[in-house]
Sequence to fold (65 residues):
Amino acid sequence: MSYQYTAKYTKIPSGYMGQIIEWEEVITEGKDLENCRLMLEDALKEMILAYQKQNKPIPNFNYSV
Fold:
């Protein structure tokens, strides 16, 4: 199963802030847009691992199999 989420990027003084719209706990910053995308992808993977370790359900607002 793979999940699809919506990312939102906002320009901030230090670069960009990225957030997963459907999972507001997944948020990060990067020095430029590409760095922010990579950081957000990593933050999402880490959040999924943390939820799995805690046996918490992973939000799957939009998913495809």
About this structure: Residues 4 and 65 are 10 Å apart (CA to CA). The longest helix spans residues 33-53. The two ends are 5 Å apart (CA to CA).
